[in-house]
Amino acid sequence: MEQELKLRTHQFIAPSGFSYTIREENGEDEEILSNQADAMNGNMNITKFIAAIVVDTDFTEHHRLTVQDVLNLPFLDRYTIMLQNRIFSLGAVLDFQYKWPGMDEPVTYEQDLRELLFEDYSRPITEEEKAAKPFAIPQYPDQELAKALHYKGYELTLSSGKQIKLDWADGNAEYAISKLPVNKQTRNSSLIARNLQLKVGEKWEKVQRFHLFSVRDMAEIQKAASRMDPTTNLMVEIDNPTTGETQMYPIIAAPRFFFLTEA
């Protein structure tokens, strides 16, 4: 009989206000993360990985996460879980290399990943905190309302009188957008993926085309979506030591974000 190994756990509040407890990453998790078929299928390896490491949460009534539950997680929570796991299981300092144009050798950088998280998402983040950590994962505004709606069906009346509602971005939206051909990926793709609906009479109709909305309507929808549903790309600024120019680097793409032995 195999002896059960008690792994360390870590609890935190995510930008949504929901609580998650993750266990320490183990060797089997590396198999999930390195599954290339899942990686090419809308990053399903990440979705399955999150389902494996979360051992308790108040996001669901059953306090665990199925693969579908992970797809339902608010976008910022998904990335916070990945970042919290990297810090907890593999360490807070990530080293990576970047080869600048014109240089013969790549430059090595170190990033403290704690700079990408605020300390307490259970209360409003102050302007001072935002200034101190400009690249940190933001907090969802109107947290209590969003939690009450379970991050689905935010309703808004436009200045034109049209009534709309849409969901907060989640793994389902991310997956749907990843499956779109390049010629279908437009400024409005994310709105369709987030289940944008228009009230017609007494019924809500899913929006597939935007001909019923004026340009002013669209600007108002995009502005509202950006306010209620901020995003992150987990990027940090790096400096060219020779020229002083700066560039944004995607931390999650660093080879050692998930695997310490990668070059």
Q: How would you summarize the topology of this molecule?
A:
Blueprint: E1 9-13, E2 19-23, H1 27-33, H2 36-39, H3 44-53, E3 54-57, H4 67-72, H5 75-90, E4 93-98, E5 107-112, H6 127-132, H7 143-148, E6 154-157, E7 163-166, H8 171-178, H9 189-193, E8 197-200, E9 203-206, H10 215-228, E10 235-239, E11 246-250
Antiparallel strand pairs: 1-2, 2-3, 4-5, 6-7, 7-8, 8-9, 10-11
Helix pairs in contact: 3-5
What this model shows, in words?
- With 263 residues, the protein is an alpha+beta fold.
- Helices cover 31% and strands 20% of the residues.
- It is built from ten helices and eleven strands.
- It has helices at 27-33, 36-39, 44-53, 67-72, 75-90, 127-132, 143-148, 171-178, 189-193, 215-228, and strands at residues 9-13, 19-23, 54-57, 93-98, 107-112, 154-157, 163-166, 197-200, 203-206, 235-239, 246-250.
- Strands 6-7-8-9 form a four-stranded antiparallel sheet, with no helix packed on it. Strands 1-2-3 form a three-stranded antiparallel sheet. Strands 4-5 form a two-stranded antiparallel ribbon.
- Strand 4 and strand 5 form a beta hairpin.
- It is globular, with a radius of gyration of 20 Å.
- The protein starts with 8 loop residues before the first strand and ends in a 13-residue tail after the last strand.
- The mean pLDDT is 93.
